[in-house]
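Quick one: structure for this chain?
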Amino acid sequence: MDQSTQSSVDKLLAIMKKLRDPEFGCPWDVKQSYESILPYTIEETYEVVDAIERKDYDDLKGELGDLLFQVVFYCQIASEENRFEFSEVVDAISHKLVTRHPHVFSDKVYQSDEELHLAWEKQKAKERKVKKGTTSLLDDIPISLPALKRAQKVQKRAAKHGFDWPSIDGVWQKLEEEILELKDEVEKSDNQERIEDELGDVLFSVVNLTRHLKSDSETALRRATNKFEKRFRILEKLVNEDKQEIDKLSIDSLEYYWQKAKTQC
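Got it. Here's what it folds into:
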């Protein structure tokens, strides 16, 4: 880290410390805890994602600053409780990156991307064993992750240890099977819990298909939602231009406008 960067980091840490000062700090910042600022951390993370997807790199700079502030906030609270310092967080991630990249930071040579990836997974597995209280390969996958992301991580972790379909054919077959089971449950029952269970199986299978297609389920669904939103906004505009009210249109009329909207987006 060069001197100017170190100076900037020290300045940010000093600002955070002053904000948390019990006597002279900001009352709102002083009363915060790990738990209370967690929703802001999640919000800031998604705002970073949004800036990247919009390719607004000036905005990205600001959003990354907001996200960095969250890290500094947690570290200040931890420092006050004599748990750890910001410098220890930096040292820990630095050590992890060096350890996981021996082909960059030592003379280790891998013959293929596959060999490199296998070594990466072995190192991560070794690190998991060191963690206290781990009894399962899935223990360190956060329960608080968005459902699609967590499903994909659970599947990927199991697959790394051989629990996976040998080809995508089995994935297609499983998805078709789960859809049939959902349809059967809907047709023969009004038990919402069982229907939801079957629906969950379908979603889980779709995530598995996404993984086998080397895509990301969260990204795929977010793109689909964004596309729908753009087209629906165009539909609204077309309806208004024709001096119609969307709530009063028939399904056939809505379909007509929807098809027109699709030609524009």
